[in-house]
Amino acid sequence: SPRVVALMNQKGGVGKTTTAVNLGAALGRMGYRVLLLDLDPQAHLTLYLGVDPEELEATIYDLLVDDEVKAEDIRQNIEGYDKLDVLPADVSLAGVESELADKVVTGAAQSVLRTKVRPIAKEYDFILLDCPPSLGLLTINALTLAKEVIVPMQAHFLALQGMGKLFETITMLRQGFNPSLLVAGIVLCMHEGQTILAGEVIGDLEGFLEGARGTDEPWAQAKIFEPPIRRNIKLAESPSFGQSIFDYDGGCNGAQDYMKLAESVANHELVW
Amino acid sequence: SPRVVALMNQKGGVGKTTTAVNLGAALGRMGYRVLLLDLDPQAHLTLYLGVDPEELEATIYDLLVDDEVKAEDIRQNIEGYDKLDVLPADVSLAGVESELADKVVTGAAQSVLRTKVRPIAKEYDFILLDCPPSLGLLTINALTLAKEVIVPMQAHFLALQGMGKLFETITMLRQGFNPSLLVAGIVLCMHEGQTILAGEVIGDLEGFLEGARGTDEPWAQAKIFEPPIRRNIKLAESPSFGQSIFDYDGGCNGAQDYMKLAESVANHELVW
Ligand SMILES: Nc1ncnc2c1ncn2[C@@H]1O[C@H](COP(=O)(O)OP(=O)(O)OP(=O)(O)O)[C@@H](O)[C@H]1O
Ligand SMILES: Nc1ncnc2c1ncn2[C@@H]1O[C@H](COP(=O)(O)OP(=O)(O)OP(=O)(O)O)[C@@H](O)[C@H]1O
Ligand SMILES: [Mg+2]
Ligand SMILES: [Mg+2]
Questions:
Q1: Please, is A215 exposed, middle or buried when counting C-beta atoms within 10 Å of its C-beta (0-12, 13-18, 19+)?
Q2: Beta pairing partners, B151
Q3: Interacting residues of B180 by C-beta distance below 8 A, sequence separation 6+
Q4: 3-state secondary structure of B135
Q5: Is A235 in the pocket of ligand 1 (CB under 6 A)?
Q6: Chain-centre distance of CA A160, in angstroms?
Q7: Does the CB atom of residue A197 touch ligand 2 within 6 A?
Q8: Tell me: the pLDDT tens digits for B212-256?
Q9: A201: which residues sit within 8 A by CB, 6+ positions away?
């Protein structure tokens, strides 16, 4: 059965979408069968891969609010890979919280994505979930479906502040909807390794993770994945061509970093 | 009466908080009386200015949900300025949407901030509102209180995608809660002017804004403010010291850019 990984961080603009697309594409190039889910009403993952949300008849919004709609009805195939598919989003996804409000108390609103993705999950080796910059219902649906969490972040002070709340949310999910949810690790994005700030933030993170080793915290097996993803303007250019970094400029730093990251992620098997 | 400016963009990590703090501090150094509001449950503006949200007895959350709490009860003064105050946030602000859900249909939920800030507004020349990366109730409260909107953004492809939705939201606010709301302009943040991507994005933006000149669109008077704020690691370091860029490193590019931006903003008076 597939590894199901949520790319989550309520801090905005840290590299969640860029990591979901390019880690996914790298795993695809390694021969894994990959499904990407766009759970952000901004539909940036969908746009990044060159899919026009306005031309789609149905998206993840319909999957979540319409009992008749199945995952395979909305699935889009990305050309050039053995099996790289996406469940696309569009702006109407912003309305899902109010649409499902009366189903929150029973837990149906939080687990609808898990129910809808389960029938196609076994076709894949990796399922990556791109989350919006919030801890609302869409992120909760991702954490209910996911088996593991990867946290994209920048080695900046403000980004570090939210980690406590992020880990607290994961602990709460384990109490209710998803008792086996684990944190796989942290991916450093837009990394400027030579700065003092980066060194300090990484020191803080490593100290925190080392302190949890051997405990039963959900992040006891988490690590900072190597390599960090260096800041590289090609990664900001590739979405405007609707291409992953590999199709846009396969030789650049961004492509090298994400390919190595994919190998690290593939090799970091968590123990439940 | 004060200029009331919302720093908003639903795209995450574009420089909203960094701009609210440092534009505010620059206006303060120019002698203006400035009030900053932190409307993000991440409480990043509060943290940036060295205020610890966990030590506060009451924050903007209490202002919004408790009829007894007044703005002056939660106001914090920032030392070193004639008059630079902040209405701080804390994580409990994330609960405000559900707390006020039954007041949405009447419009009370969307206008509570305007009601609560009105009594102290006349003490200030500028009131800056830092918004979270979403178009939910907190941002709507900001747009109901504000007279003008400044959009911090990066000159990146993904950031450009959300402008349509952002402007659509402003148009909708004008139909209901705030008929005189206008877009003052765009601030380019973390700017890397030498990249082709930046040139293309700026070209798109300028074309769009020039096309609206003379129309009755809310962005007919909007411009791209000069100068762009250059990428500068000191701007990412200063929050870890709880200081604005001027107190942290007054001679750096970041301090120069924000001081010049403050002059541009102060001189760009909209006509209603
Ligand atoms: N390594 C990198 N080097 C340069 N630019 C990058 C890099 N990674 C991402 N970017 C750019 O930085 C911006 C933020 O990245 P991205 O949109 O992936 O973050 P996000 O966490 O998904 O944002 P949001 O919180 O809005 O969903 C984008 O414009 C993206 O193109
Ligand atoms: N000009 C700049 N140069 C370098 N780093 C910057 C600059 N402006 C902001 N930053 C850093 O980039 C990150 C994003 O900025 P900031 O937090 O202000 O964005 P935001 O739009 O408020 O994010 P959110 O959507 O999460 O509220 C922060 O870590 C900040 O320190
Ligand atoms: Mg994203
Ligand atoms: Mg912010």
A1: exposed
A2: B186
A3: B147, B174, B272
A4: coil
A5: yes
A6: 18
A7: no
A8: 999 999 999 999 999 999 999 999 999 999 999 999 999 999 999
A9: A155, A156, A157, A159, A160
